[in-house]
Amino acid sequence: MDLPLLCSSTGLALIRPTTDPCVRISKASFPPLEAIYRGRQEEEINYARYNRFDTTGGRTLYLSASAQTAFAEVLAPFRVQISKLGGLAKDAQSLGVSTEELLELIQSDWLEQGHMATGLVPVSWREERQIHLVAPPIRGFWIDVESPYSISAISRLLQNPKNSWVTSELGKLGVNELDTGLLRGPNRQATVILSSLLRTTRLQDGNIPLDLVYESKHGLGRCFATYYDHHKDVEGTEGEHPKIISSLPISSFHPDLVAVAKLFGLRVL
Q1: Contact, 216 vs 223, CB < 8 A?
Q2: Total number of domains constituting the chain
Q3: Residue 158, Cβ neighbours under 10 Å: how many?
Q4: Which residues form the RES domain (predicted)?
């Protein structure tokens, strides 16, 4: 394994920002780079509404390395749940049709009644959104949060008495191991706590990180959790935020939408 760029003060695996554009999919009714402010630690928090690497008391903007990665992140909730597949197969067999045919019949019935149907990407979803090319900030450092070097470094950070609040909160959640399973898993409170720690960690240049880099759990590429309101704290980057290069509507024939929908077994309307 090649040795990555390691932070001399923390041991975290660092990545120098790329000049390659990133991709973001968002609702057209909101500013394309709007990031939701999340409450502080002492406030009552509904972690079920948080995204993976949100931080308490800050804003986190999510970007993807490619359009396929971006579509995978936003289309995953449309997939038919595994728990329902067995029942569908049994019903299809009794009716003498394939599972796919039965699912299409159910979807058509739900659409006729004006309901959202599982396994479908509705027209309204596409029309309400745009796909953006985004230029990321290029000064400072990104943290490769899933690197074994970063995981080891985070474990050392947790030994610092000033970070006892992190170990205390993780202990309450029953978290005993720090690994990629935790970072990619459904425990949103744990990932938010760890992200909040990293957001305030000073790197070798004395600045906080620009963002966290991690692999999409859908296996289609890298994602970026950008600490949107912290760029003003990085020397030489005051006022430098991600910038929109272009914004386009999402066509039902968009090749990356079609490719991801096929992988997920979805129909695009």
Answers
A1: yes
A2: 1
A3: 15
A4: 24-113
